[in-house]
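U., I forgot to send this yesterday:
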Amino acid sequence: MKIHIIMNRTIFVWLVFVFFLSLTVVQAAGPTSEVYVVKYAVNGTIIHETTVTYQWMEANLPVYGDGVTHYYHQGAVFEGDKWDQNETRNYKDKGAVKGTGIRDLCDLVGEMSPGDDVMICSPDGYHVEFSYANVCEPSFRQGVMVLSWYNGEDTKFGESQGVGYPPDYYTGMRLVFFSDNSTNQDKKHVFGVWDMHECIPEASQHFYELYPSTDGLSIKWVDELRIYSGGYTGEEMSPTKSMSTKISGGEGDASDGDTDASSIPGFGIIPAIVGLLLVTYMGIKR
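Result:
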């Protein structure tokens, strides 16, 4: 009898724990309105740090984008040449975005130097790392790396971004590469997979399985930039993907698989299920 009571209490405690843990996971990520910027010394100590809102960025730093021109990344190409050098398919429209240069944000805490890396983080755990050259000396085909905080026009097909400032721009703040249109046959501003091949070191390139995808570099909900003096030596890219599955229109390209846990269909009902089990358990106990 005593063992049975102990087991029931243990089950009850675990149900409560899982319930609140699932609430935390589901609510941990979402549109961001400020970013924490920090620079670390080689020994890991903080050299300088600051936190700025998108309102402050818009008022005090150069603004990239006009709210009319659309910018695109490219998803994985599964048929033919996976590097698709002519950028013929699977464009991922990021909207008519405006934002602040990653370099300008890094300058707030003491700039980057050759040999430094910057980590761009999302609260869902996903992060990407880039070198000094990609942040501070980008080629035209790569374009300026921009933290977008405004979208003037939503996508017609594919992943919906939302319009306006966060939280109405519900994939913001988001990393977008402002590639030029010189290498695109349709004269679109596409940061293609071949652009990534030519501009981004292999360690910072993104692949979905064995297929290159620049879409995986355009992480949403950015809330932190970390500059590592002398370079970053930790884990490259968390396995959690900071991508959404909201779809607008009816003819979007197929997803290349970059999804996070909170975008998996049905994931949001986990707290409800756990809560129902908990209520049922309490009813049985009575």
